[in-house]
Design brief:
The complex is a heterodimer of chains A (about 425) and B (about 325). Chain A is α/β, with parallel strands linked by helices. Chain A has one domain: TIM Barrel (Alpha-Beta Barrel). Chain A is about 30% helix and about 20% strand. In chain A, strands 1, 2, 3, 4, 5, 16, 19 and 20 form an eight-stranded mixed β-sheet that branches. In chain A, a hairpin with a 2-residue loop joins strand 2 and strand 3. The longest helix of chain A is centred in the middle third of the chain and has 17 residues. The two termini of chain A are about 15 Å apart. The relative contact order of chain A is 0.16. By secondary structure, chain B is α/β, with parallel strands linked by helices. Chain B has two domains: about 140 residues, Rossmann fold, CATH 3.40.50.1370; about 160 residues, Aspartate/ornithine carbamoyltransferase (Rossmann fold), CATH 3.40.50.1370. In chain B, about 40% of the residues lie in helices and about 15% in strands. Chain B has a five-stranded parallel β-sheet, covered by helices on one side. In chain B, helix 5 links the parallel strand 3 and strand 4. Chain B starts with 11 loop residues before the first helix and ends in an 8-residue tail after the last helix. Classes of the chains: A alpha/beta (about 425), B alpha/beta (about 325). At the A-B interface, helix 5 of A face helix 4 and helix 5 of B.
Chain lengths: ~425, ~325
């Protein structure tokens, strides 16, 4: 099998619903397996699960601006290793993706150098400054076809501006993906979940309510405008309660949780290792339990990695000064399998919904998150559900090494990834 | 012990040994020739990323009286603004063959991070809002001397120590609580609710916002400096109100248990958290604390770096 193989028969794969199937990849789509010619290249998938390719709603690729930390090439290579066939490139690059031209530039990088589909997230406000709307409609109409808008890294804090943004994007079925952080309750210095740990470590606290008060405001603005709001990286039990209430009310809210907020907890920062500095911060076990339960019952719709590569020199600072963020693409599936599937909280079909179908739907991505049926695009990942490995930060396709799972024994499920019928990763 | 990063690093024997040796070191201070040869040939770098006249000077004197080569490095201003990371700054100095770093930094955890990077030994001389272990040791030393002047053997068991003020932003309070957990003193924490750290109920101390209620039961009252910028942060309305509720005023001074010692890590805001009557009272230990600072730091450096028996390595 070669990288440009266009015809391949994946034989004897198990599907997420438990059934078995042969999958015939021909010219980028799934063709009728009985039509596969004799002698076509075969991939023995006995014992492997075939899942639709994973879709990430929340990825920092750092290009343009910080190519020393990550590029579209390296970031999407990491995505392919993680089983992803689509990522959403966040807008907080340098320059910020806040114009149609900038969006098309990133989309072009994705087409030329990507190892998966790169969907572009546009900024909600110019330069992420939170003052004036960016050209949302021009970004939507551009070649990049932007549908998700986010000032991620910063909260759209002005309630009137948030109302206008929500209202405006209805014209082109856009969604505002909010980084929910009240900048007064959790200011720029806040870097540790406000808890016994922040008190002991002397680190400025980031209370869980600094997230949930913004979520509570935004779901009500979504109701007011009858528009769609997406809550990025939900990390607290209080936010989960608000989203559950809003969904019951019929408000168009969706939400994502990161792999790290499912698995890693506040005590990890006790050694002041800045690898574990992330925004929102790692929370305590009761919050982890709440977001796990919410992901299982669908209150949280999707997993979003918030893959945030940083150069070493931006992490080698005191804890309150170092840049927040951690890698996520390569270990995302392993973490979700460990926390949600191996624990019995979720079956594989639900995992597909949370990591592929729902994020594709939220992002408005046609051709991703589709069932593995004849005629559908050949975006899929082959998974060995029992494989495990100790994570080695140095063995990454990412340019960055801020991997919080380094040294951990985790499921290592991704055997091969196929995007548009081409193999983009094989173990 | 390789480093002194937290007061919790010390067990009872080590803490007692540091206090006891400090008494011998203090006698050196009264000699006309104050130099001991104990650390001859050792190099100590006092690297202060944050200004501190008192702590830096006392570490410098302590090192010099022990005959160490003591170098002061002022690294004020964030390393980010200079374009150099904390790790690179520390590794650069470490590569020169330093035996120990005494580190002061405005960020919590900086000394612990540095200890993970360098080959030299590290003493935490105050990290952000986290810890200041040598301050807690000199506080304990001054308290013990004070108890003895009252005809007491100087044990901490059974003693009540009130720490009053901005507990949220104080590295002094954390180190004192941890050290007294080892030494056996009972700590009472007093502050307005806005200045209590989250989770303080798990520290194993009595916590109250009513200063008057504990005045007559404490053997030591330690007043912490309150900074004006906390008003802008909404932690309390005015200095006047703060003084009224949490200051050691003349009235509260009169209500203290007879013989109670008054401590302050300095610099003092006279008329705010402490009245001049209290600062200059006969049972004020403020200047004793400063004098103890040199002796304690001599003792700590000797315990960490001295090659004779008693070294904690």
């Amino acid at each position: 099998m070669t990288a440009n193989s266009t015809h391949l028969l994946i034989a004897g794969a198990t599907l997420a619903d438990g059934g078995r199937a042969d999958l015939y990849l021909a010219d980028g789509v799934l063709a009728d397996p009985t039509s596969a010619p004799e002698g076509v290249e075969r991939f023995d998938a006995d014992g492997l699960l075939a899942l639709p390719g994973l879709v990430d709603l929340h990825t920092h690729l750092r290009e343009p601006g910080r190519e020393d930390a990550e590029t579209v090439d390296s970031g999407t290579a990491a995505a392919a290793r993680g089983g992803f066939t689509c990522v959403h490139a966040m807008a907080n690059t340098d320059p910020v993706t806040d114009t149609a031209e900038a969006a098309e530039y990133v989309a072009g990088l994705g087409e030329r150098t990507g190892h998966c589909e790169v969907r572009v997230v546009g900024a909600v406000t110019k330069r992420l400054a939170g003052e004036e709307l960016a050209e949302l409609g021009l970004m939507a109409a551009s070649g990049a076809g932007v549908r998700v808008f986010s000032d991620d890294g910063r909260c759209v804090n002005d309630p009137l501006l948030m109302r206008r943004a929500l209202s405006y994007v209805k014209a082109f079925d856009g969604v505002i993906a909010q980084h929910s952080q009240d900048p007064r309750l959790a200011g720029p210095g806040a870097c540790c979940h406000e808890s016994e740990w922040s008190g002991l470590l002397g680190l400025p606290g980031w209370p869980s309510q600094a997230e949930s008060v913004v979520v509570a405001r935004d779901v009500q603005l979504a109701e007011l405008t009858d528009s769609r709001v997406h809550v990025c990286h939900v990390s607290t039990a209080e936010s989960v309660d608000v989203i559950r209430w809003a969904k019951k009310r019929g408000i168009k809210v969706t939400a994502e949780v990161t792999p790290h907020h499912l698995l890693l907890d506040t005590p990890l920062v006790a050694g002041y290792d800045t690898t574990f500095k992330v925004n929102p911060p790692l929370r305590t076990s009761e919050h982890l339990e709440a977001v796990r339960e919410a992901l299982a019952d669908g209150t949280i719709d999707a997993v979003g990695t918030d893959h945030a590569p940083h150069a070493r020199q931006d992490k080698d600072h005191p804890f309150d000064v170092a840049l927040p963020g951690m890698l996520g693409l390569e270990q995302a599936l392993g973490v979700v399998v460990e926390v949600m599937v191996n624990s019995g909280r979720m079956d594989w079909a639900t995992l597909v919904e949370r990591m592929s179908s729902a994020p594709a739907r939220i992002g408005g991505v046609a051709g991703q998150g589709r069932p593995l049926l004849t005629g559908e695009p050949a975006n899929l990942v082959l998974v060995d559900p029992s494989a495990r490995a100790v994570v080695d930060a140095a063995a990454s396709a990412s340019r960055a090494r801020n991997n919080p799972y380094h040294g951990r024994d985790l499921p290592d499920p991704v055997v091969a990834t196929f995007w548009r019928g081409r193999i983009t990763h094989r173990r | 012990m390789r480093h002194l990063l937290s007061a919790a690093d010390l067990d009872l024997a080590q803490a007692t040994s540091i206090l006891d040796l400090a008494e011998e070191m203090q006698q050196v201070q009264s000699r006309p020739v104050k130099k001991l040869p104990a650390l001859r040939g050792r190099t100590i770098v006092n690297i202060f990323f944050e200004d501190s006249t008192r702590t830096r000077t006392s570490f410098e004197i302590a090192g010099k009286w022990l005959s160490a080569d003591t170098i002061n490095v002022s690294a004020k201003g964030s390393s980010v603004s200079k374009g150099e990371s904390l790790r690179d700054t520390m590794l650069t100095l470490d590569a020169m063959g330093v035996d120990a770093f005494v580190i002061r930094h405005s960020s919590s955890g900086a000394a612990a991070q540095a200890a993970g990077w360098v080959k030299a030994q590290v003493v935490n001389a105050g990290d952000g809002q986290h810890e200041h272990p040598t301050q807690a040791l000199l506080d304990a030393y001054s308290m013990r001397q004070h108890f003895r002047t009252l005809g007491d053997p100087g044990e901490f068991a059974g003693k009540r120590i009130a720490i009053v003020g901005d507990l949220l932003h104080s590295r002094v309070v954390r180190s004192n609580v941890l050290l007294q957990r080892t030494l056996g003193g009972e700590v009472v924490l007093v502050a307005p609710p806005t200045l209590l750290p989250t989770g303080i109920d798990s520290w194993g101390c009595e916590v109250t916002s009513d200063f008057d209620a504990v005045l007559d039961s404490c053997d030591i009252v330690m007043m912490l400096r309150v900074q004006r910028e906390r008003m802008a942060g909404g932690f309390f309305p005015t200095e006047r109100e703060y003084t009224e509720r949490y200051g050691l005023t003349e009235e509260r001074l009169a209500a203290l248990k007879p013989g109670a010692g008054i401590c302050h890590p300095g610099p003092m805001n006279r008329g705010v958290e402490i009245s001049s009557a209290a600062a200059d009272a006969a049972n004020s230990l403020v200047l004793e604390q400063v004098a103890a600072g040199v002796a304690i730091r001599m003792s700590v450096l000797y315990h960490l770096l001295g090659s004779d028996e008693g070294a904690m390595k």
